[in-house]
Amino acid sequence: MSSSATRFSHAITRLPAKSIVDGLRACNTGNPSHELFQEHHAAYVSVLKETGAEVTELPALENYSDSVFVEDTALCLKEGVIIMRPGAPSRAGEAAAITSTLKTLFSDVRVIENGHIEGGDILVTASEILVGKSERTDAEGIAALRVCVADWGYKVRELQTPADVLHFKTDCGLLDENTILSTRRLADSGCFEGYRVLYTAEDEEASANAVCFNDVILFPAGFPKTAAMLEAEGYRIVQIPNTEAAKVDGGMSCLSLRLTPNI
Ligand code: CIR
Asked: Which residue puts its alpha carbon closest to atom 1 of ligand 1?
């Protein structure tokens, strides 16, 4: 079933900068190819557009190596947008860089001013906002988010991103109103009680970061067992090559902000 957590009229993306070769990563498996990343990125944007959404494609920001990962800069809700406060010092300026674009789409723009919080640690479901504490997101940042969304009626639930995992959503993604794709290591913490949980196949944990956008599941190519399971469950998945983003710890959700403007 679709909900405002999975249906959107717009998305924002940003072209990968040539400086993506300097992108942050937990372990070095080689530099991404800028050219190939551009091809993968174009495929990703096409899938968003094929759902009928309008996509605002922002230019590359060479001063910010990781700026292609726009998800970390903001949280878009139907009532307004909250500008994040990234915990990675090299990414702090990305949030200000996207604010003017967000101001053209939302009448209410709120800013996190304390602690740190990145969009990759936030999973919005139909009933609540789940936020994992991580190396990038702290309790102060989560408390600031709670204050920002309180008068819009959202419940914010603080959780823990597994150790050595970059973001909460590195290990999970919303498939529909009540179903979450998750790694076992994350779901075993009990954080998804009350939801239907589907698990990534063994050795395919890196496929958990799938995104449901207007009834299409954007899914990273190269994870055949999990892809087959999702298809058997009746999901319409589109597999998108992600080898270059993966070299700098990026996945499907990080590459876009998904939203429905309120102006
Ligand atoms: C970083 O470490 O910040 C980037 N190299 C990857 C960010 C991925 N973003 C996300 O999962 N939301």
From this structure: 24
